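Whiteboard transcription, Tuesday session. T.W. wrote the C-alpha cells on the left side:
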C-alpha cells in the first residue's frame, strides 16, 4: 500500500495500489492486506495460465471483460472445456482441467476466510487426487468383495424363501 504525502500538507492519504484484475476484493474495498489477499492474486494467475487471457480485457464482449467473472460463469454453466487457452496444442485431460479450475476457484473466493492457505494450495496442486480421492486398489478390491458377499447372501436368502414358502 502506498502512502502519499502531498507537498506542504500535514496529513497522509492512503490509497489502494495493485494491478487491476489481481487485487483481492477485500483489499480493493478496505485497503487492508492479509495473507489471503495474495492467494486471490495467485488464483487469478492460475486462471491466466489455464485460459491464456488477461485478467481484464476491455476489448472482449461485456460478459468476458473480467476473467474471474467469465470463468465462474463458464464453469457454472458446465462449459469448463471452453475456457482452456485455444493455443494449447495438447488439451488437458478433463480431470486435470477440473482440478486446476477448482483450485483456482477456491483461491478467488470472494470471502477471504474461505480461501485456502498457500501451503494447502501447493498440496492441492501437487496431489493428483484433489478433489477426487483415488482409492487404493486394495480398498477397491476389498469393497468389491464385500459387495459380492452381500449380493450372494441376498441371493441365498431369496432362494431359501422360495424353497420354504411359509
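and on the right, the sequence the group agreed on:
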Amino acid at each position: 500500500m502506498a502512502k502519499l504525502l502531498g507537498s506542504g500538507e500535514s496529513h497522509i492519504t492512503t490509497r489502494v495500489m495493485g494491478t487491476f484484475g489481481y487485487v483481492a476484493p477485500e483489499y480493493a474495498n478496505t485497503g487492508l492486506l492479509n495473507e489471503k489477499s495474495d492467494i486471490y492474486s495467485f488464483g487469478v494467475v492460475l486462471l491466466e495460465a489455464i485460459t491464456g487471457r488477461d485478467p481484464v480485457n476491455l476489448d472482449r464482449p461485456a460478459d468476458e471483460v473480467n476473467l474471474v467473472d467469465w470463468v465462474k460463469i463458464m464453469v457454472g454453466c458446465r462449459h469448463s472445456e471452453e475456457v482452456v487457452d485455444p493455443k494449447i496444442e495438447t488439451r488437458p485431460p478433463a480431470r486435470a482441467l477440473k482440478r486446476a479450475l477448482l483450485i483456482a476457484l477456491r483461491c478467488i473466493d470472494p470471502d477471504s476466510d474461505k480461501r485456502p492457505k498457500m501451503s494447502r494450495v501447493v498440496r492441492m496442486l501437487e496431489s493428483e487426487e484433489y478433489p477426487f480421492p483415488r482409492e487404493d486398489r486394495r480398498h477397491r478390491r476389498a469393497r468389491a468383495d464385500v459387495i459380492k458377499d452381500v449380493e450372494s447372501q441376498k441371493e441365498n436368502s431369496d432362494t431359501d424363501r422360495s424353497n420354504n414358502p411359509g
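Someone added at the bottom: The first strand starts at residue 2 and ends at 4.
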